[in-house]
Amino acid sequence: MKPNPSKILRLFAELQDRLYDSETVKNAISQICRYTKDQSIIETCETIAEILEIEFDRNFDTVNIDWHFQAVHRLQKHQNWVIEKYQEIQNSVNDYNSKWSDPLLKIIDTQLARLSQLIILLDREPDICDNKGNVIRPNDLVVYLCKDEKDRDYKHYGVVRATPNGYRVAHFFTGETVKPEGKIVRVGIGYVHLAHYTTDWLFKERPEKEHPEKVSDIQIEARIQKSRQKILSAKDPLWNLLSYNCEHWAREMVYNEPKSTQYEEMRLGNNFKN
Length: 274
Fold this sequence. Notes:
Helix content is 47%, strand content 17%. The protein has helices spanning 6-19, 24-34, 39-52, 65-92, 98-122, 207-210, 217-232, 246-255, 261-267, and strands at residues 141-147, 153-163, 166-178, 187-196, 202-205, 239-240.
């Protein structure tokens, strides 16, 4: 005769207690979602929550890869602790009538296997995404939403570059501008700057998808360096709202053709959004 099943049932209960202990999983997946915009990682966290039937905080704060991996490592440590209790069940289960353990093992085996798969999926560096969740890749055209001196919206353009220190945005801008006599627009000295990528730079266009025959990382880098050299030798074109603004420059770096879609909008009678 098999012994009283109370012990094996308590082990199953203890396993579930460990799984939900101190809301570790809830806090970890909340932290992961707080510091990434990677949609596949967020969906993985949502699946974990569905399996455990828990609610968690999906509010995004800022991108932080270190905080992402800290939470993943906490999940891995917690999972190992749960597996220790699972092994204790495995070592004892044959001593008891299977009618008590088989239904629970069927549920728990699936539960732990799925959670193990999902935690492995989280253990990777998240995609770099903008504030709208768009994946950012090197050579992408990106825009930063700004206001001019008249409080009008405009888009400041840049080109994403991959560097040993992470993603940067190469962009062309001006400081003080002047309006030469007889001219209708202001002009200024242009500067090329490499800024840290932040999620406020929004995805605009993926050049290799739009015009793959025109895009080469080596060519883009060479054009950016050439533009910098022109500035050093005072041979660079002046920044000009209509004829050579940030978008002209960015598209020239990518496609070797200075063009401003915003200027074209203005010519068609729309509000100009530089």
